[in-house]
Amino acid sequence: LEPAAGIEADRKLRRRALTDDELAALYRSVRGSRYERCGLAGPERAMLYRVAASTGLRRDELASLRPASFRLDDEPPHLLGAARNTKNRREARQPLPAALADDLRTYLAGRQ
To answer: For residues 75 and 93, what is the distance between their CA atoms, to the nearest angstrom?
Structure first.
């Protein structure tokens, strides 16, 4: 099926990926926030946003992650998404950038 004529012209919001500078500004802003959202303080939300932006995981997939989901000392560092939480119902092995893996090692130390 072809899209209805004029849909693109009527679109109010054009979606686009954030630039690296915009992502960095978002992380800084959230990290310094004094507000709690969804049970997460600013630093926790900033880390969650970094993982989301680096992996492309969906909300429910992110919510299912636990410290045991991260394989930070493997080569390459990655996270494992349980099959029950992924869209295609298959275990997902998602690589992580080295800088994020380094920050996650510190962030996850001692967390359950």
So the answer is: 12
Tens digit of pLDDT at every position of the chain (112 positions):
555 556 666 777 788 899 999 999 999 999 999 999 989 999 999 999 999 999 988 888 898 899 999 999 999 999 988 778 777 888 888 999 999 999 999 999 988 7
**Shortest CA distance to 54 belongs to which of 23, 32, 26?**
23
Q: What is the pTM of this model?
A: 0.79
